[in-house]
Design a protein that fits this description.
Chain A: It comes from Paenibacillus herberti. By secondary structure, chain A is an alpha/beta fold. Chain A contains 11 helices and 12 strands. Chain A is 33% helix and 22% strand. The chains are: A alpha/beta (323), B alpha/beta (339).
Chain lengths: 323, 339
């Protein structure tokens, strides 16, 4: 599906299952296919347990997939070995959710940011190393003279900037950002999002932006993929997705976001889904969403809906029999 | 059976406020100093109202709420000054013993994380009946019946079986429903909800907000909702208090706050949020800088260092509240100046 000739990354029928004991399997990502163009931001949204983080990590090859492929510039990343794998790791970097847990508290900022430089042998002397770190700190809007400080001396937003500087150290082309702003205060979130957007322009980056804050995802993304219980249920240009959501889950998700405007809230019709997310260890038969879907029929229990093109725009796909 | 009469709007304004907080100051001793978490907070609320306290981490919103329940551990905390008058008596003057009969009976509270605030070794039913037997002198049988009723009320399916289950057998959303059931079981006058949906997914959040609104309608409970999510405020609340660095910087009804915010911090917060109807490539307008260190709060206005309109007076002297309408005030020198 959706094979674009200029795709930088093509994920093809990717699955990642975890053995959770007693012969049970957790299908965290189940047959995911999508492609990401060079220079774009693809947002991935969904609730906890939908597989969005596992998808991001498998695409980074932090996990080995159960099955499927991911072609990066035409090469399957799961076939890479040795020097090729190391080169791939330079191209792809990750920004994590928790700026408290993802920085080593005993290391100075210089050592944290320079670690990737050391691993990839990109600096020849300690002077060069220091200059590189100063340049990176400046790039992410931190004071370059702070390189001898430790993580606890920085606020959450500043720590996230350190995490971004570390990711940028090796001049990556592709960044997977897993909930990079959800641990931050509202007034700080906008600072970090603006930074990510500016860096995308100046460093020609491609982003996979994983989040649950749909308003922020819409703001930053060119296209958005919606996941539910390990499956991609809808993918579209972000304006299309918000203007004309086709999958009932996307519709409910969008209507659930409270809008900071009392007039909108007073008139809005909210689709409140009944029930909880089913366990990904024993997902429902057929369509994964059918147990909570207001429009489910017998067909939904019997038949897994295929992802298919819906609507006028070629880039708009949904996995619902009735979309 | 314990339902209140619906409140008519006329009567509401002439009524004494059920809660009046005046000049509340709470500090914590830390190594090498004192963190002034709440610095002179005043507000009041009427019966049946939903009041939002909005602010970022460290703004003092949770400490304010915990002070109303007298849940601040002392030491290291101290109530430095002020009063919290609830239904005519000052909660800060009550003994710990007296407070025990206020908590859970007159004021209920729900917390952000329902897993750590429920007892993992007690069934959900026992956690509700415990409250009822203590505060309402119900016998076990009657309390059990009421527990089932409460779970049904908050939308837990199959309540007869669910009362016998433990918290780990509940999903996140169901646990928060159970928390609400416990908090409301004695039909409190006031419910304090501290970030009740922050740990939940959006579709579950929508369910919980619906339950809370429904409860407020059915039981006439007054609600203090503490949140950082301005969308939830617009959905749920009548009145809004905006806190920054331990102080109330703006108060108003929700239309005043969202449609004509007067404090630069409130304005900044609203501008820094992405809007679903916003055009792409319109950059967000963040608030620069970070909040002040509360162990060492600045002299003048605490927001001055981040404020795009800061003037000389702002760093020298802390502003006082300026009135914009009967219900709308903001704490900013801009409003003392001729345009």
């Amino acid at each position: 599906m959706a094979n674009q000739s200029n795709a930088m990354l093509e994920v093809d029928n990717l699955s990642k299952f975890f053995d959770v004991g007693k012969g049970k399997t957790l299908k965290a990502v189940n047959g995911l296919s999508l492609s990401i163009r060079k220079g774009e931001t693809l947002g991935v949204v969904g609730e906890s347990g939908c597989g969005k983080s596992t998808a991001g990590r498998t695409i980074m090859r932090l996990y080995e997939p159960t099955s499927g492929k991911a072609l990066y510039n035409g090469q399957n990343i799961y076939d890479l070995k040795g020097a090729n794998l190391k080169a791939f790791r330079r191209e792809m970097q990750m920004v994590f959710q928790d700026p408290y847990a993802s920085l080593n508290p005993r290391w100075t900022v210089e050592n944290i940011i320079a670690e990737p430089l050391d691993i990839h042998g990109l600096v020849a002397s300690s002077k060069e190393r220091k200059v590189a770190v100063e340049r990176l700190l400046d790039k992410v809007g931190l004071n370059p003279s702070h390189l001898t400080r430790y993580p606890h001396e920085f606020s959450g937003g500043q720590r996230q900037r350190i995490g971004i500087a570390r990711a940028l150290a090796v001049n990556p082309k592709f960044i997977v950002a897993d909930e990079p702003i959800s641990a931050l205060d509202v007034s700080i979130q906008a600072q970090v999002v603006n930074l990510l957007q500016n860096l995308q322009r100046t460093e020609s980056l491609t982003y996979l932006f994983i989040a649950h804050d749909l308003a922020m995802v819409k703001h930053i993304s060119d296209r958005i993929a919606v996941m539910y219980l390990g499956k991609l249920v809808e993918i579209a240009d972000s304006d299309d997705l918000y203007a004309d959501p086709r999958h009932p889950y996307t519709q409910a998700l969008l209507s659930s976001i409270p809008v900071p405007d009392p007039d909108v809230e007073a008139t809005k019709e909210r689709i409140v889904l009944r029930g909880d997310l089913p366990s990904p260890i024993s997902p429902p038969s057929g369509c994964p969403f059918r147990t909570r879907c207001p429009a489910a029929t017998e067909r939904c229990a019997a038949e897994v809906p295929e992802l298919r093109q819906v609507g006028a725009n070629k880039a708009h796909w949904a996995a619902c029999h009735y979309a | 059976m314990l339902l209140h009469q619906p409140i008519d709007k006329e009567g509401e304004t002439t009524m004494e406020p059920i809660l009046k907080v005046e000049d509340l100051r709470v500090s914590f001793r830390v190594r090498g100093g004192e963190v002034q978490a709440v610095r002179g907070v005043s507000f009041d609320m009427n019966k049946g109202e939903a009041l939002a306290i909005v602010g970022e981490s460290g703004s003092g919103k949770s400490v304010t709420a915990q002070s109303i329940m007298r849940l601040i551990p002392t030491p290291p905390g101290t109530y430095k000054a002020g009063s919290i008058v609830f239904e005519g008596s000052d909660l800060l003057k009550k003994t710990e013993k007296q407070m025990e009969s206020v908590r859970g009976r007159d004021i209920g509270m729900i917390f952000q994380d329902p897993m750590t605030s429920l007892n993992p070794t007690m069934t959900i039913g026992d956690q509700i009946t415990e409250v009822l037997m203590r505060h309402q002198n119900m016998n076990k049988e009657k309390a059990n019946k009421r527990a089932v009723e409460m779970l049904k009320l908050v939308g837990i399916p199959n309540p007869e079986a669910r009362v016998k289950q433990y918290p780990f057998e509940f999903s996140g959303g169901m646990r928060q429903r159970a928390m609400i059931a416990i908090a409301l079981s004695c039909d409190p006058t006031l419910l304090i909800a501290d970030e009740p949906t922050t740990a939940l997914d959006v579709t579950i959040q929508a369910q919980i907000l619906e339950v809370m609104k429904d409860m407020q309608e059915k039981l006439g409970t007054s609600i203090i909702l503490i949140t950082h999510d301005l969308g939830i405020v617009a959905d749920m609340c009548d009145k809004v208090i905006v806190m920054y660095a331990g102080q109330v910087v703006e108060r108003g009804n929700k239309y005043e706050i969202f449609k004509s915010p007067q404090h630069p911090y409130t304005q900044g917060l609203l501008k820094s949020l992405p809007r679903l109807d916003q055009k792409k490539d319109e950059p967000l307008i963040p608030i620069d800088g970070t909040p002040p260190d509360m162990a060492n709060p600045p002299h003048g206005c605490p927001f001055a260092a981040r404020c795009p309109h800061a003037m000389e007076v702002c760093v020298e002297e802390d502003p006082f509240m300026f009135t914009h309408s009967d219900t709308h005030e903001s704490k900013c020198w801009l409003h003392a100046m001729p345009e």
